[in-house]
Amino acid sequence: MVFKELGKTGEKIPALGLGTWGIGGFETPDYSRDEEMVELLKKAINMGYTHIDTAEYYGGGHTEELIGRAIKDFKREELFIVSKVWPTHLRRDDLLRSLESTLKRLDTDYVDLYLIHWPNPEVPLEETLSAMAEGVRQGLIKYIGVSNFDRKLLGKAVSKSQEPIVCDQVKYNIEDRESEKDGLLRYCQENSITLVAYSPLRRTFLSERVKKVLEDVARKHNATIYQIMLAWLLAKPGVVAIPKAGREEHLRENLEATKITLSEEEMRLLDSLA
After folding, report:
1. Model pTM greater than 0.90?
2. What is the end-to-end Cα distance of the chain in Å, rounded?
């Protein structure tokens, strides 16, 4: 596993995390595969996926419950658990209630990282960030960050927050390059804010042009195009990725991507696909 520093915290986290959207349901709970999903999570942790990303929204809270069951067999201090608060819960009291519920479902005393899932212009950012800082002071949150904030809004959050904003979690992959176009990636790198790439793999809807280039690079490394997509992201300073994997073979495939070293020429070629 490759490790990178989280923001300027001095703490190293796995650069390849585990996204859990769809485990235990999507917008609503799905209890039909609970035992299978708990076992999958345990296998993932044993493989080295100790950076686990979730949210109160996932599975209507059930995803957090399954993670809570899975982590019982492991030392809590060896795990890095991230959760996110939904944009309708960004008022102070609502956020603290959401945090309490998340901790209860995860069956843990704290989350390592707590994020604003999406911005909500109807709630003052200062109020939300102040509530998150309160969670830090109470020992319920270790670090705070944001998700789906563009360059301008991230800058505002950094200026308003009582606690350091250590990351911005955004959609970023070989074809979704908004974080490059609006200057977000550069801003994060220049200010030591970790950029967490969600949806780092496009298993469908890849353009033929991009797919062909990926296939050419993949052949040279005896790899899949998805491993090359991950290797490209992980080679970027200050970037970590949280691919979703619902099957053991995908967990193993993604993990192998951390062993791939792309040449400078290959990085320039992949960068040029924007």
Report:
1. yes
2. 28
In a domain? residue 191: yes
Give me the catalytic one of 49, 57, 58, 226.
58
b/e for 46-77, b at 16 or more Cβ within 10 A?
eeebbbbbbbbbbbbbbbbbbbbbbbeeeeee
Alpha helices in the chain (DSSP H): 34-47, 62-70, 92-106, 125-137, 151-160, 178-181, 184-190, 208-221, 225-234, 248-256, 264-271
Tokens standing for 264? 């400078």
At residue 53, the pLDDT reads: 98
Task: Answer whether residue 81 is part of any domain.
Answer: yes
Spatial distance between the Cα atoms of 238 and 171, rounded to a whole number of angstroms: 15
How many Cβ atoms sit within 10 Å of the Cβ of residue 31?
Answer: 12
Catalytic, 58? Answer yes
- CATH classification of the domain holding 111: 3.20.20.100
Q: Mean pLDDT across the chain, nearest whole number? A: 97
Phi, psi dihedrals of residue 206, rounded to the nearest 5°: -70, 135
pLDDT (0 to 100) of residue 203: 72
Determine, yes or no, domain membership for 133: yes
- Find how far residue 104's CA is from the centre of its chain: 21
Residue labelled with tokens 């062909």? 212
Residue 185: is its pLDDT beyond 90?
Answer: yes
Determine the residue type at 205: F
pLDDT at residue 246 in the model: 87
* Integer angstrom CA distances of residue 210 from 75, 156, 178, 240: 42, 35, 17, 21
> Looking at the domain assignment, is residue 210 inside a domain?
no
**Domain that residue 79 falls in:** 3-203+230-260
Kindly report the CA angle at 74 between 69 and 76, in degrees rounded to 5? 90
